[in-house]
Amino acid sequence: MKQIYLDYASTTPVEEGVVKKMTDFMSFDGNFGNPASRSHSFGWKADEAVEEARNNLATLIGCDPREIIWTSGATESDNLAIKGSARFYKNKGNHLVTSKIEHKAVLDPFRQLEDEGFEVTYLEPNSSGEITVEQVSQAINEKTILVSLMHMNNELGTITDIDSIGELTRSKGIIFHVDAAQSIGKIPINMSSNKIDLLSISAHKFYGPKGVGALFVRRKPRVRLEPLFHGGGHERGFRSGTLATHQIVGLGEAARIAHQQMDDDFEKLENLKRIFWEEVKDIEEIYVNGDSKNKFPGILNISFNFVEGESLIMALKSIAVSSGSACTSASLEPSYVLRALGRKDELAHSSIRFSFGRYTTEQDVKETALLVKSSVERLREISPLWEMYQDGVDLDKIEWA
Amino acid sequence: MAYSQKVVDKFEETLNNPEKASVGRWKPGDEDFHRVGTGIVGAPACGDVMKLQIKCQNIDGENRIVDARFKTYGCGSAIASSGQLIDMLKGKTLEEAQAISNQEIVDILELPAIKIHCSVLAEEAIHRAIDDFKSLRNND
After folding, report:
1. What global pTM score does this model have?
2. Which of A35, A266, A323, A331 could form a disulfide with A47, with the two C-beta atoms 3.0–4.6 Å apart?
3. Rounded to whole angstroms, how far apart are CA atoms A158 and B59?
4. Domain span at residue B16?
5. Is B31 within the bounds of a domain?
């Protein structure tokens, strides 16, 4: 059966050209040298490739290449940024600010810092999934040393106003970290005009390889971090460990392509989202999660009331999507992001995230929309909740056993 | 979620031919409704709700389940477990049905450990439906 991939927010395929470039940096006939080897051409060539990649990424985000640290991915970048800055500046204060809709790679380091004695404020989004500059302004105090917020939410596609928040944090001398794993290469970001101090980047979300990422660390004003890894002092001492040349080359090449294609990609995604939404919008009792004006068109999160998300995924078996339903998670908890929006738990259970990307076609989204319509209808036929709703029963007034 | 082929088959059977899979309901006003016991278990906030109805008939002095219908809101294994339960119920006396254990459903469908609660829900549903049927009889 032909599978339609609509889970680009989870990961993306690597561009063929990128794969080719990467394989040139692995075998004996290729350029396998250690970029840290200063004594021979094998090392010099590898170093040259790593620096070219650094330049490509710097061009994409508008920064000085020396502000980029290679890491193993956004999880490491988040850990290094959050734990590294909090621990380095702990004598300045012990209060940190983040939000309830952050990725686990951000929330977990904060939990760890709480164990180390830091106090953390977790901001709640409004019902559209937005964290505002006003909320940040109210949350910070004279002991605040770090604010960490995501640029684009991975479940909702909502975009945070990082420029305004950066102005605020800079004026107060607070470090501002942004997890940009979902947004890099998809929407513009300009580090030379914004006031973000630390920015986490992941390659596999923008058609690069898995297992590699980067952390932007601002030079002016200088941001300092306590490293997580100690060793050979690579990456200006921020991140020891031999550089994974082929991975970094892959990230750099993906960044170069993203820089060229970003506008076209974005326009295409807007069109796909419009086509998809036209097809599904008339289904009764559906709710768009994260219904913000400032939103990325590549992610559409919809709750289909009275239908459980995992069963819908099983019915859509030729379509690869993900759900906020508890049944698809190992913990049996529904999505904490959807719950943070103040939606009822059942709407979290009923949610599906459709995420479109560079290889998605109009035919793909049309086919998916049709299948969604018929599957929702069929699952509602077997749903006792739909039956009660049709009978006019108020489900909130029932005492469930 | 790595489901067994049995769960997938049962789920698809139900979805593709709901009538044959005994999806449906008896409602007040239907002929014989007084012989139908209903059990509803689970909660929307937990992600699964199972509604089971059994139609009983006194045959040779014993109440037997002659027909059953269900509707289920829940994950694939909850829907498959309901369908499996239905298959097991028909023709059984109330006593025999009462004795059905969730483990039988787990074994037949090869449910993964994390989905065992779906089978527990099915067991609870039959207990509720039997209790409901008995309470109706007491009211006669």
Report:
1. 0.94
2. A35
3. 62
4. 5-101
5. yes
A262-292 core/surface letters (b: 16 or more CB in 10 A; e: else): beebbebbeebbebbbebbeebeebebbbeb
> E strand or H helix at A251, and its extent?
helix A245-280
Shortest CA distance from B83: residue in chain A: A382
Count interface pairs A-B at CB distance under 8 A. Answer: 90
Residue B127 lies in a domain: no
Q: What is the pLDDT of residues A175-200, one digit of tens each?
A: 999 999 999 999 999 999 999 999 99
- Testing the interface with B: which of A314, A344, A376 to mutate, by most B Cβ within 10 A? A314
Residue B74: which of A308, A332, A344 has the nearest Cβ? A308
Tell whether B134 is covered by a domain.
Answer: no
How far away is chain A from the Cα of B64, in angstroms, using its nearest Cα? Answer: 25
Residue B75 lies in a domain: yes
Overall domain count for chain B: 1
* A contact residues 381-400, partner B, Cβ 8 Å cutoff: 381-387, 395, 400
Rounded to an integer, what distance in angstroms lies between the CA atom of residue A272 and that of residue A125? 27
Give strand pairing partners of A119: A95
Per the CB < 8 Å rule, is A349 touching B47? yes
B73·A310 Cβ contact <8 A: no
- Span A126-156, pLDDT tens digits: 999 999 999 999 999 999 999 999 999 999 9
Please check whether residue A83 is in contact with residue A132, taking contact to mean a CB–CB distance below 8 angstroms: no
Q: Residue B85 belongs to a domain with what CATH number?
A: 3.90.1010.10
Q: Which residues pair with B49 in a beta bridge?
A: B42, B73
Other Cβ atoms within 10 Å of B51 Cβ, number:
25
